[in-house]
Design brief:
Layout (H helix, E strand, L loop, with lengths): L1 E5 L3 H12 L3 E5 L3 H8 L10 H11 L2 E4 L10 E4 L15 H10 L7 E5 L7 H12 L6 E5 L9 H6 L4 E4 L3 H10 L1 H5 L4 E4 L1 H32 L3 H9 L20 H14 L7 H24 L8 E5 L14 H11 L3 E5 L4 H7 L4 E2 L3 H5 L4 E4 L4 H4 L3 H5 L6 E4 L6 H6 L3 E3 L5
Helix pairs in contact: 1-3, 4-5, 9-11, 9-12, 11-12, 12-13
Bound molecules: uridine-5'-diphosphate-xylopyranose (UDX).
Uridine-5'-diphosphate-xylopyranose (UDX) binds next to helix 9.
Length: about 425
């Protein structure tokens, strides 16, 4: 099929390359000229394992190309909307203006029947408004259909999650749209990936509620970690105990510095805001608490760090390992690691950050922090080492080697995943969160 993908960020670029992998002819359209140039030359403007190879394969196969002009999308049979819906600067709600402008540019070019498919995470009810605008602005009118097909990919696993999703959700209002989506995803459905066909509002809510549930699970175990800190109990053992219960499950039940990134924080806030607008805000009051528990993790790490270095950061050197919001990503949006690094610096410490992939993005966002080219350089002369993003290379560190360059052997493992016995044996004072 001929497909356009509008918006080529983490979601759109991955989706476009994976559609080409499944045999479709795809054009990715983005207003950002630099991004389009990079993608057209086979360079990924962000870090995502496996994606650059896939991009190069399909630029070469001729099934994938990129453009800045929406006219290049005009003759596609299916148009996927993959633009961002960030949090609005003035409220907790999501900003859907990028979607609105994509529709405004695309609709006047649609002269024959086709399907426009929203993938972005949106407040429930957005699709209906967009659909009306689409029908009004398109020369083909109501022959242009709208569907919603939320995307559940995780950064760091974007290619795998897109090629082999746990499920596909088709939010449609007519059987032709469902048939078109089944053709787009015929490879996955042939593999047995479950398809759930829903109404459009249900599909909009599918993504919002999945992310709210994941955030709740993380904050739940972090609340338990607070209780552990108050009682001397061990959250790692509790994760094991709860995780073995198949009704609860082990994943997303890991206590630490909490969640960040471009999705979970803004998606729970958008759901709270939308529920309030719809008169059911009371049902989601707990989600505000999920947000508060999560943000308190950052404060807890700052407070514990200050306590560990002697109740004041002034004159202290702090090494921060990790800047991305999670490993295998260079994304620093709402990064818990950078939030902690920034707060500690503002309280008088000299903070040096190292991250395997996110230094450039971190420097742009927090230019006043110091950045190192390696873990050893970041830890040189440190009074405290903070482990804030669990990159595999930090877990593989040799604590004995690190002890040669630090001023003191103090480590706070805010992701609760270093081998603490090894660190203690190498002479370090190891502290985790929710562990005695
Ligand atoms: C999330 C959803 O998982 C994905 O389905 C959706 O499409 C987009 O939002 P992503 O933001 O890429 O994906 O990251 P995810 O792997 O969900 O991690 C989110 C945050 O939670 C990270 O900061 C991570 O460190 C944290 N986390 C995750 C925990 O603190 N504990 C856990 O047990 C799991």
């Amino acid at each position: 099929m001929r497909i356009s993908v509008i918006g080529t960020g983490y979601l759109g670029a991955t989706h476009a390359a994976c559609l080409a992998e499944h045999g479709h002819f795809v054009v990715g359209v983005d207003t950002d000229k630099e991004k389009v140039t990079a993608l057209s030359e086979g360079r990924l403007p962000f870090f995502e394992p496996g994606l650059e190879e896939l991009l190069q394969t399909h630029l070469a196969s001729g099934r994938l190309r990129f453009a800045t002009d929406m006219v290049d999308a005009a003759d596609a049979d299916v148009h996927f909307l993959c633009v961002g819906t960030p949090q609005r600067p003035d409220s907790m709600a999501a900003d859907v203006t990028f979607l609105e402008s994509a529709i405004e540019q695309l609709a006047p070019l649609l002269e024959r029947p086709c399907l426009v498919v929203g993938k972005s995470t949106v407040p429930v009810g957005t699709a209906q408004r967009l659909g009306e605008r689409l029908a009004r602005l398109s020369p083909a009118g109501r022959a242009v259909r709208l569907a919603w097909n939320p995307e559940f990919l995780r950064e760091g696993f974007a290619v795998q999650d897109t090629l082999h999703p746990d499920r596909l959700v088709f939010g449609v209002s007519d059987s032709d749209s469902e048939a078109t989506l089944r053709s787009v995803y015929s490879t996955q459905t042939a593999w047995g990936v479950p398809v759930i066909v829903t109404s459009i509002p249900t599909a909009e809510l599918a993504k919002a509620s999945a992310n709210a549930f994941l955030a709740t699970k993380i904050s739940f175990i972090n609340a338990v970690a607070e209780l552990c800190d108050a009682t001397g109990a061990n959250v790692l053992d509790l994760e094991e105990v709860l995780g073995h219960d198949s009704r609860i499950g082990r994943r997303f039940l890991h206590a630490g510095l909490g969640f960040g990134g471009g999705c979970l924080p803004k998606d729970i806030r958008s759901l709270i805001a939308r529920a309030g607008e719809l008169g059911v805000g009371h049902a989601f009051a707990f989600l505000s608490e999920v947000d508060v528990v999560n943000m308190r993790r950052r404060q807890r790490v700052v407070d514990l760090s200050r306590q560990l270095v002697g109740e004041s950061f002034i004159g202290r050197n702090v090494a921060v390992l990790g800047a991305a919001f999670k490993p295998d990503s260079d994304d620093v949006r709402d990064s818990p690691a950078l939030n902690v690094a920034g707060q500690i610096q503002l309280q008088g410490a000299h903070v040096t950050v190292f991250d395997p992939k996110a230094i450039d993005n971190a420097r742009r966002l927090f230019p006043t922090l110091s950045y190192a080219g390696s873990t050893l350089e970041a830890c040189d002369g440190a009074d405290l080492v903070l482990h804030l993003t669990e990159w595999p290379e930090f877990r593989a560190l040799d604590p004995g080697e690190l002890a040669q360059v630090t001023r003191r052997q103090l480590v706070l493992d805010a992701r609760n995943c270093l081998d603490q016995q090894r660190w203690r044996e190498a002479g370090w004072l190891y502290r985790g969160l929710g562990q005695p």
